[in-house]
Specification:
- This protein is mostly helical.
- The protein has one domain: Orthogonal Bundle (Helix Hairpins), CATH 1.10.287.
- The protein contains five helices and no strands.
- The radius of gyration is 14 Å and the shape is globular.
- Bound molecules: phosphoribosyl ATP (PRT).
- The site of phosphoribosyl ATP has 10 residues, from helix 1, helix 2, helix 3 and helix 4.
- It is found in: Cytoplasm.
Length: 94
């Protein structure tokens, strides 16, 4: 899991740097309202996750959770934070 998140974060960082035209991730970094778009997605997906959980729909829970994790990593990158900032915080709670 750690590797998957590290690899996804590295791809997001690459998209931020290289801004390929056909990349949804790059569009979030180039769009004027990119940060608002990410925050809106996080809100929508959290609501969808709650509904999936209430329905005990495991496939939908995994789908919405993945959307949330992806947009969360984009947000960290937008704030010029590192994935280690999240890991450090989680480990500090252990
Ligand atoms: N993990 C993701 C990822 N998760 C979600 N999304 C996008 O986030 C958007 C979510 O918007 P929506 O909620 O409206 O879409 P939806 O989930 O189909 O819609 P709902 O039915 O849930 O409302 C979609 O355009 C998804 O394609 C992602 N886009 C890219 N990645 C990864 O990011 C990396 C870079 O990809 P590019 O952005 O293509 O360069 C690659 O590793 C990709 O796999």
């Amino acid at each position: 899991m750690d590797d998957t998140l590290d690899e996804l974060f590295a791809v997001i960082e690459d998209r931020k740097e290289t801004l390929p035209e056909d990349s949804y991730t790059a569009s979030l970094f180039t769009h004027d309202k990119g940060e608002n778009a990410v925050l809106e997605k996080l809100g929508e997906e959290t609501t969808e996750l709650i509904l999936a959980a209430k329905d005990d729909d495991e496939e939908e829970i995994a789908y919405e959770a993945a959307d949330i994790v992806y947009h969360l990593l984009v947000l960290l990158s937008m704030k010029d934070m590192e994935i280690e900032d999240l890991e450090t915080e989680l480990e500090a709670r252990g």
